[in-house]
Amino acid sequence: MLLPSELPSLPVVADLADPTLTSALHHLIDHKTKPLGALGRLEALALQLGQILGTEQPRLEVPQMVVFAGDHGLAAKGVSAYPSDVTWQMVENFLAGGAAVSVLARQHGLALTVVDCGVARDLTPRQAVAGQPQLLARKVAAGTQDASIGPAMTPAQCAQAVAHGMEVVRSLPGNVLLLGEMGIGNTSVASLLLARLCGVPLEACTGAGTGLDAAGIARKRQVLEQALQANAGAVEPLEALAALGGFEVATMVGAVLQAASERRVMVVDGFITSAAVLVASRLEPLVLQRCVFAHNSGEPGHALMLAQLRAQPLLDLGLRLGEGSGAALAWPLLVSACAILREMASFATAGVATKA
Question: Which residues cross the membrane (predicted)?
Answer without folding.
Answer: none
